[in-house]
Amino acid sequence: MKPFLKEFIFSTSTCSYQIEGGRLEGGRTHSNWDKFTIENYYIPLEGAAEREINSITHAADYYNKYKLDATIMKEMGVNGFVYNLDWARIFPDDSGIINEAGLDFYENAFKSLIENGIKPIPILYHWDTPLWLEEKGGTSSRNFLEAFRAFSRAIFQRLGKYTNLWFVNDENSSYTVQGYLDDYCPPGKKNAREFWKAIYFLAISGAIAKDEFDKAIKEGSVNPGSLLGIDHDWTPPVPYDENDQDDLNACKIFNEYNLNLFLDPNMLGKFPNCFWDAIKKYKLEKMVLPSDLEMLENNKLQLIGWNYYRPSIIAHPKRLNEKIEWHNKHSIFITNEAIIVYPKTNRYTDWNWLILPEYLSIGAHVLQDKYNKPIMILENGLGYFDKKINGIVEDWYRIDFLNEHLREVQKAIDEGVNFIGYSAWTYCDIFSPSGGYRKKYGFVGVDFDDPNLGRYPKASMYWYKNVIKNLSTFENKKINYNTFSKEAKLSLKNKKNLWNI
Ligand code: BG6
Prior knowledge:
- Helix content is 42%, strand content 14%.
- It is α/β, with parallel strands linked by helices.
- A hairpin with a 7-residue loop joins strand 9 and strand 10.
- It is globular, with a radius of gyration of 22 Å.
- The two termini are 41 Å apart.
- The mean pLDDT is 94.
- 6-O-phosphono-beta-D-glucopyranose binds next to loops.
């Protein structure tokens, strides 16, 4: 396996509502996530691998600690940081007037990253709609489009000079499925019509952002040659039985709804068949304007950000009647022609997320063959219960997980996939939608019980540093922890209290 090239981007990712805090500072107003977490506050029993809906008012307080965090990232050795911009901080009300303090915050955060040798890789929108806009219909309303245009323009004009790599929306799929069909996330609806509207307006918003992006390049506020992509969480389908035609067909249907529906509009400039079928079924023809379709066609995006956590094992619904031991099973929400199944024989995380790293390289080929654009992994990580033993988190399970996945990135590159970077989820512990603060993802731990929200390194941070320094993962799947742990343990001991600032 060849080492990674020096210019490969090794980054970490996180998201504003999950770490930023400062929700009541700097002239900001509430968003749909503030409302949702306040109204649905729920703390399960300690140690339960369940959903915790906790306050995000302070989260990890990146708002006040961004300078410290940039220096920690420097120590980690990364050269990129993927982060979305909080809309309600920049446009706190519907007057159309920019809150300069909001842009100041991001400008300062970007400057700190750059001073530490880290490229900011901004995402414009990660599910967090200002409440004033949510009340005007949010993503399932045409009002979203002009508001998004103003938001994109404000960001490109002020922050365009700090980077050359941008993404529009994070995971339109999870956001619309969980927010409009499943009432799991804000805006907490169960309404198929609203769901299709949200898919439509989010796709058009990507094209509008590209229109503004190109204008900003012409005007000189965005660096020439900069790229704008979309971030999607396609879970490659694995047929339950690869010799069964019904299961294979179910995989095709799954791809129509999980891949084509979310990437075709912004990468190919047109909606796939399943979209047009739904428009008819829900009588939404009037929503679709020729000028929108023209905008889509003329403003295709330039790269794919891929959030890979797991594939989906897909079966034909006939399997529901069979006597098979599943861990879990459910329909794919949008259609009942395919189901996702969780056979007991597979590996799972504490939160029952399937672990199958090999589909990262298999899926990368599918993305490349279909869209022929550069790809960057924007999220890949392990949510787990971490335990501090003698003040240290030795998260070998996370190192194993990430190492196995990064090896698949290396493999795909060797096989000719145009991967430009890898960004692990996450830089530090976060508020997780499915596990709150108990589901740990970070290379850097955050002491959420400490009012200072102190940071501490985990073993995985030193593993990642080592990968970046040597441009290579551990060669064998079995990691020799004894050799590795000497250096890492020493660093961990010396550092364990250092970041309690
Ligand atoms: C991605 C989201 O879908 O999954 C992140 O973009 C999220 O915001 C991540 O944190 C992991 O999901 P969870 O629920 O385990 O935090």
